[in-house]
Amino acid sequence: MKDLVAKRYVKALIDGRNSVTINTISDKLNKISTAFADEKFNSIISSPEISSTVKVNLVTSFVDGMDSALSNFIKILGEKRRLTLLPYIAAELSAQLAKNNNSYVGVVYTNQELSSDYVSSIEQQFSKKFDVKLSLSQNVCDYDGIKVDIDGLGVEISFSKDRLKSQLIDHILKAV
Question: Which residues pair with 150 in a beta bridge?
Fold first, then answer.
């Protein structure tokens, strides 16, 4: 639900602006959205005892040199009690910019560290395959195999040892 509301706000932010202005707004919203990771900040923003002007002033204090359009946008969000949507709006705006620039960010999940050459070769192959600019980061976790997730494109490709074993067993059973 919040994503749908965020899409409408992003559409309003993008309409009638050039790409340089949109990039600047996106950078500033990303700086603001990092504050939402702090629990104390979230309690201040969600508190009914604190006025919306104080909340708006707190949010705008995170970014220097804020233009009037972004300042007015944050004031409107404060008046409508929707400041908690700022991280969703920042994420959606980044996704829209990626779509417009044809550049995407993905994550490679593995259980051990891969060499940077290997990750860059995966980047190149997927860039050619989908005809986009791709940047992959690596996440070492407990995934038993390798999985590449490109969120903006809606692509997830995985190879799991468990799945290979189960498919091999099924194939042997069918052959018998």
Answer: 106, 155
